[in-house]
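User: Fold this; tokens only.

Assistant: Input:
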Amino acid sequence: MKILVANLGSTSLKWRLFEFSDAAVTLLHKGGFERVTDYSKAIEDCLTQLTEAGAIANESELAAVGFKTVIAKDVTGCVRLDEPVLQAMADYNGLAPAHNPPYITGIRLFAQRIPKVPLVGLFETAFYQFAPEAMMRYAVPDSWHAIGVRRWGFHGASHKFIAERSAELLGRQDVARRAQNLYVDHGQSPVEGPPLRVISCHLGGSSSITGILNGVAIGNSLGMSPQSGLPHNNRVGDLDAEALPYVVKTLGLSIEEAQRQFAKEGGLKGLSGGFSNDVRDIQEAAAKGNAQAKLAIDVFVSEARRWIGGYFLQLNGADALVFTAGIGENRAELRAAICANLDQLGIVLDAEKNAATRATETVISAPESRVKVMVIPTNEELVVARETRRLLASSR
């Protein structure tokens, strides 16, 4: 079975092709295009590359195309992407304006180009379906909650991969099985050992932190939209609800312009005074004495620690603290700052291991650390492919 996973951005198309056999999964091909202006051509060029590379003879070999879809009204989980689901995504375009519109466009173009191949979406909200209600509610009137004003959580594919892989690395196959089968049996797989408590830090251009108990999420720092939680590269992160009307009135902005600034000029870019949205540039400037760049780093670290601390308390401690995604896997200085002075909580880094680790599976905590601090490169596309395969198998 060959499953293509397509990652659609506002100006990009990236893909990975996986082949599943009875006992293994193999990455057959990966590629991508940036600065895409014609998605139809990009899709055609993708299929051409797959054919010329010998990964497929033709598109009829594709069992499905899977997508890491973000959010839809009244829809979550792993589902076939039919027209009602696409309309449900469109209903929430305002919550994910950088994500939903390009996905909807791309999915429809894939459907036109390969109409006989099933299209499947694994929604980023899926991993939080089983979180305690108290962790996912806002203190709003029932009428607001009824129309979707609640914490949804995102980066679900990444955090689900961390739930599975961290359990395997910690020798907890029972928990790994529960995480793997989560969308099949809703977290009912038996856990045979003591509770496994993991705090997963997906830190990158978009960042979030998730608490995971026995392979199941208890919550996520992202809330109703990807605008929330930690500061992102351009997006503001958590913000008081009164900030929007105050800014509109005081600066004379339209709501639309204020929203644009929240999404395009906030986050690390806003904190650094517009200097950059790239943490590498910001770290370099901070090291040279740029006060605003230093502030951007300090705020990011402080917010990460705040969310880690919250889940540490909810979980009654942690067995593992995991760093993943672009910043988490590659920026040793930020990992060190986030973990600094936490020895009383049982978190102690090995400075040399941390400094030497970039994008490899490694335990970077010291031997005396009660909490294992780990770097685990994420693999969201593999999670999408696995869940797409399970959906196809269940519908036969």
